[in-house]
Design brief:
The structure is a homodimer. By secondary structure, chain A is of the alpha/beta class. Helix content of chain A is about 40%, strand content about 15%. Chain A folds into three domains: about 45 residues, Orthogonal Bundle (434 Repressor (Amino-terminal Domain)), CATH 1.10.260.40; about 120 residues, Response regulator (Rossmann fold), CATH 3.40.50.2300; about 140 residues, Rossmann fold, CATH 3.40.50. In chain A, helix 1 packs across helix 2, helix 5 crosses helix 12 and helix 8 packs parallel to helix 9. The longest helix of chain A has 18 residues. Chain A binds a DNA duplex (30 and 30 nucleotides) through helix 2 and helix 4.
DNA sequence: TCCCTTATTGGGAGCGCTAACAATCTAGTT
DNA sequence: AACTAGATTGTTAGCGCTCCCAATAAGGGA
């Protein structure tokens, strides 16, 4: 059996329910007493059509409630006007905001967005790509799951833009936040407070954006002549608690904590509350990405503010350009600068804001 | 011009880039020296095929890397194996969790899920339905935007299940949380604490689930012989602040606040923090739905816990059944009971949990 | 008036696939 | 050996649409 789903056993001759009764081009043509081609041309805005004919055709379309059959269009090589958006996880506000923005941008240009999530399953990635291709999406926007490696030939020349995470293997455009600069700025800010032992933590460091943020952290530490501390992996509530306990013990306690992603920030905020760790008195804190409900948290969080809208819009526009201009992917790497929102958790007492280079 | 996007002006004779080079059934058939029908039969798991032929066909498929062309399948009336999921807003964790669960369930049954969001634009609803139909989704899962009224004929007989919010007009199955019972239970619990003036607040009350929750509130108040207080609309941070100020003033201050949806709960938690209102000392609080980051909030929140997974799974399974068994929609109304998570914000001091009827 | 150019319309063919039916082949029966 | 039921494979047509090319209608200059 093949690895793609099939129509199901049909017993060899069981009739499949055909979507009956739908109005076709031929129906419209007959009603308007013209050739199907004329209707087709009208639909495509071909100017070589007399106003009188156009009116007749329009009337027939409206009267019959005609809708185009995209399967037939697409079979002839026409664009489907659908782009696929594959995300690792819809429950993460970072990605759901991307979804929102991509849809906004694409919709304004006449495209539908087919959103799907891999739920961090790297094999699911490849399957989604293939099946979306089978369904003739015009292009693909990919925030690939951790570790998935997409061979170039699997993309089969379909316009693709990677977003947030690069696509190893396939040579495509890549739009991302300038994570390295953002992390560097954040750590620099913490250093200005006089903290010397600044620790970083987060999820699996294999993911590209995390690697970039680690580099940014190291940049800032080294620039200040301080040794970078090792990256602390934190995946769940239990490990956050555990880490909190070890951070403050020992002869040289950590003075500031910088989680490198939003989920981890949440984990630590929960742990701080549970362990009655006072921020920023016991420990300074700098969050990565805006946290939902952050206004209900005291002290207010200083955070890296990711330019999600700009990133999503850039990526979408680049993709649509590739689709419509049929330009080759330039393998460009577009880095969008993030900004810092300085509130109180880092040790500041008044709010102010700065923008990274 | 029609109201659906068209392929773009083609000048009458500009050649459209056909996705060249893709392996077709005929290619496989030739490579395996059989008829195309034989390959098709193999793909559909037809048992009337000799093992030797099956092997030959499989080898050819693997060697050539054949993938089915769904446009052609669908044009013949075959199922597309895609279901559409239309949600009001992906940024809301309630809906993004629905998306996650639907995908989980559908994927296990060989279906892809086409997720799209209307961003609370009621007109966008209808357009998405129509365009997904144009693309031959096998069925539709709908959490319709507020106020959208879908005429039955627009659904055109496509299997549909409404989720969370009913579909006015179209007679389809409807899977929802038993919001009325959940609200009743929550209010009853608050009443047991001795609170008599319990206020409800939330977004636009036109939305069906909100209406049900209001009814549940009124049930509980009347059962206790108390007059229900009027519903307080709250849409943003400013109005939450305003409401907080008025709640505690006057001769008969409100003792407990019960926001009827998650977003509003967040708004009030932020306002409480800003106004230094202490929960539950100044005001008891019962949240609707689990709030992200709720573990980082003191006191811990008592909340209605919505059975999102069960709801999404039920809805998906019902839809797939309609699709595969070709059963008519029973116009059934399935209510899934919610449970209460009792923590501290309601005035309790120890955690315990109860389940509504 | 005729011919030629340009605007507008029509007529097949065929995209890749599958339903229905036809054809062939096998083994079992009398 | 002739025949038949059943298993296996092939053939044809056509899903709804758009391509290519041909056909017609409309204007303009000789």
């Amino acid at each position: 059996m093949p690895d793609f789903p099939i129509g199901g056993y049909d017993g060899g001759s069981v009739s499949v329910s055909r979507p009956m009764g739908r109005v076709t081009l031929a129906d419209v043509a007959k009603a308007a007493s013209v050739a199907t081609m004329t209707v087709s041309r009208y639909l495509h805005g071909n100017p070589n059509i007399s106003p009188a004919t156009a009116r007749k055709v329009k009337a027939a379309i409206d009267r019959l409630g005609y809708r185009p059959n995209y399967a037939a269009r697409v079979l002839m090589g026409q664009p489907s006007k659908v782009i696929g958006l594959i995300l690792p996880n819809l429950a993460n506000p970072f990605f759901s905001l991307i979804a929102h923005c991509v849809q906004q941008t694409a919709h304004g240009r006449g495209y539908l967005v087919w959103i799907a999530a891999t739920n961090d399953d790297p094999t699911s990635d490849l399957e989604l790509i293939e099946r979306m291709r089978d369904h003739h999406v015009d292009g693909l926007l990919l925030a690939s799951s951790q570790g998935s490696n997409i061979p170039q030939e699997k993309m089969g020349g379909i316009p693709t833009v990677a977003i947030d995470r690069p696509l190893r293997g396939a040579g495509v455009d890549f739009v991302t936040v300038d994570d390295r600069a953002a992390a560097r700025e954040a750590v620099s800010h913490l250093l200005q407070h006089g903290y010397k032992r600044i620790a970083i933590t987060g999820i699996d460091a294999q993911i590209r954006p995390i690697q970039e943020r680690i580099l940014g952290y190291q940049d800032a530490m080294r620039a200040a002549g301080l040794p970078p501390l090792p990256y602390i992996r934190c995946d769940d509530h239990a490990s956050a608690l555990q880490i909190c306990k070890t951070l403050r013990t020992g002869k040289r306690p950590v003075e500031a904590l910088f989680p490198l992603n939003g989920d981890t920030s949440v984990l630590f905020l929960e742990a701080f509350e549970e362990l009655r760790i006072s921020i920023p008195r016991d420990l300074a804190f700098f969050s990565y990405g805006d946290i939902p409900l952050s206004r209900a948290i005291r002290p207010r969080l200083s955070a890296v503010q990711q330019p999600i809208e700009a990133m999503a819009e850039q990526a979408t526009l680049r993709l649509l350009e590739q689709i419509e201009q049929k330009t080759k992917p330039s393998r460009a790497r577009i880095k969008i600068p993030a900004s810092l929102v300085i509130r109180e958790s880092c040790g500041c007492t008044r709010s102010r804001s700065s923008r990274t280079s």
